[in-house]
Specification:
This is CBS domain-containing protein. The protein is of the alpha/beta class and 246 residues long. The protein has twelve helices and eight strands. Helix 1 runs parallel beside helix 5. The longest helix has 21 residues.
Length: 246
């Protein structure tokens, strides 16, 4: 087929354009380049491929010609294989972005029960070397204990002249669950994309971790926890997905 590559290119281009209009709520007649620029603040993939998308918008106009006085479009040029493959990769990332749970295997998450003494949390930190413990109360997630937050609680108790040993053995874990600590974690649903997670860390500089639950709401069981130390693993997955590494 003489213009097979042109047909493939236009197919991917049209899908990308439709997705951009959905993202921005653009008009049917809105210019493609304008759409791309307006969506860079809304979507990480568009922002990363802004230059390529703008170039492909110009290329689309170079390979497709509308006959005078008709609505029929005809191909007048044929892009190379590399261009067709690249725009297909961008289409895949924009329209079918990789899910976080596909990129990161479910790992064991350290947890404690709200009614157990703080010494339980201390022991859990010592055994797992994790920095965050999910706190459950009757099977529902009610908060998070961060290791540094626990150190601060111990230090404050000691500076007030309190008995640290008694504090750890008689204070329930649920008693030190703090809203300010929870605000440094983000709950997301299991269908969250890899790019959504990167954007979460980009938007909130003091974010400690992203916690995955079924619907991304408090009370559900934690399925996974993602920290910046997981980024190299995610990038290795993205390499197989033909994505620019972060």
């Amino acid at each position: 087929m003489e213009y097979e590559n042109a047909a493939k290119f236009l197919k991917s281009y049209n899908r990308i354009e439709s997705q951009l209009k959905i993202l921005y709520g653009g008009k049917a007649t809105q210019n493609f380049t304008d759409l791309v620029k307006r969506c860079t603040d809304l979507n990480m993939t568009v922002r990363r491929y802004e230059n390529e998308l703008i170039d492909y918008g110009k290329l689309r106009n170079a390979i497709v010609h509308r006959a005078t006085g008709t609505e029929e479009e005809v191909f007048i040029a044929n892009p190379c294989d590399n261009v067709v493959e690249n725009i297909a990769f961008i289409e895949k990332q924009l329209c079918h972005p990789p899910r976080l749970m596909d990129a990161i295997k479910i790992k064991k998450i350290a947890s404690v029960f709200a009614d157990k003494p703080l010494i339980t949390a201390v022991n859990a930190f010592a055994e797992t070397w994790q920095k965050s413990l999910i706190v459950y109360d009757h099977g529902k997630m009610v908060g998070i204990i961060n290791s540094y937050g626990l150190y601060a609680e111990i230090a404050a108790h000691a500076s007030d002249g309190g008995d640290v040993n008694k504090f750890l053995r008689e204070t329930p874990c649920g008693a030190i669950v703090r809203e300010e600590i929870l605000s440094r974690y983000r709950l997301v649903a299991e269908d969250t994309t890899v790019f959504d997670v990167f954007k979460a860390f980009e938007d909130q500089k003091n974010l400690l971790a992203v916690i995955v639950t079924e619907h991304g709401v408090m009370g559900e069981k934690a399925m996974n926890i993602i920290t910046p130390t997981d980024f190299p693993r995610i990038n290795r997955y993205l390499e197989t997905y033909n994505v620019k590494p972060f």
